[in-house]
Amino acid sequence: xxxFPLFHNSQQLKALIVGGGAIAKRxxxxxxxxxxxxDLLATSVSEEVTSLIEEAGGTITIDAYTDxxxxxxYNLVLALTDDRAVNQEIAQHAKxxxxxxxxxxxxxxxxVIFAATIDRAPLTIAINNxxxxxxxxxxxxxQLEQFVPKAYGQLAxxxxxxRQPVKDALPSTADxxxxxxxxxxxxxxxxxxxxxxxxxxALLKNALASADKVSAQGEVYLIGAGPGDPDLLTLRAFRLxxxxxxxxxxxxxxxxxxxxxxxxxxRVYVGKRRADHSVPQTGINxxxxxxxxxxxxxxxxxxxxxxxxxxxxxxxxTLAQQQVPFQVVPGITAxxxxxxxxxxxxxxxxxxxxxxxxxxxxxxxxxxxxxxELVVEGQTLVFYxxxxxxxxxxxxxxxxxxxxxxxxxxxxxxxxxxxxxLVSDLTGLxxxxxxxxxMSPSLFVVGRVVSLHDKLAWFTSQRH
Length: 464
What we know:
Distance between the termini: 42 Å
Oligomer: single chain
Structural class: alpha/beta
CATH topology of the largest domain: Methyltransferase, Cobalt-precorrin-4 Transmethylase, Domain 2
């Protein structure tokens, strides 16, 4: 680590900015917003920079840098001129005086650098790569900002007010740590994130009043893991995964999504594949109840969306009956995600004005579907869990009047790097998938929109 991250009290800083260009403008704006007093020395300066400095009570001197006398009374110096030699001279003088100095585009000439920051006042996150690439820091900041809701600042303000009362009530450092972990990852934080600030404070007061009496209450997060690509996981799903104590996951949850689960979190596999249910559904329901009643936060990860052929409704029915708190996080269902990655729009004004999601296997293991309702021109059909029954599905659709040359697609492991798309018609697809040895998870799409695949396919996988 070349640069050690430290946060300075901005109210105790006074900065001298030498230079009046675009970089000086950016630095002045950042420093002034943080409450740092700033003066400026430059041979020329724009009206905008002048306004920034003077409106904050600073002074501007129109002159060239000559010697270090001008640095008297400052803690921080910024050498931001267009002349590298002048910037180096300023830096040498500042360091000789024991001052902090930042040099534009030459971090090694100074002794401090500016980090890319995420401002969630009073919470601040700083990103620093030693000045190697400001653009890289900026990109990383943009990515991290998605995972740090603005409400984190409000949460920090709330808990900050209760820091001393909690310290008084819980003398043990270990007890305080446990208390704050529960608060910052529990109902209090969720209330703040939902904009329920009065409720959040009431919950915090109640938690403090009973901190030494009541054990933690468990909760279940029913999370849609999406079709496979971990980048399609929602921000809320990601955040809840980070705070879980245990994760129960399906066979359809991809390795990429599971890699987002922190290593210290307990993982329980409850996957179900055709004719292979490692844990029966009733057993999964009871596991959720048992873990929650132990006071654990339980993330139930389900492929796709939990309410679209995911049995999520059955699971939360049990939780409701057992009075176990829960919340549901929708996911991108396979029909939407896989068809999008395959370049197959589910609706299109010229081809399909409606879309229908259909299970390829009923609870009794049959495919006795309402076939006449499915054979409708201008409609896209998407069959879930239909790989085993696909020949029968094609046969029945043709038997009930669908065009035997209707375009169809089989999408295997959609949205992942192993995605494969097989395109044919109702007559030819069964033989094609047998020859190709297609594996689950797979999705079957029927409709005129499939003809757009060759034109609109954009996702290139390793198996393409």
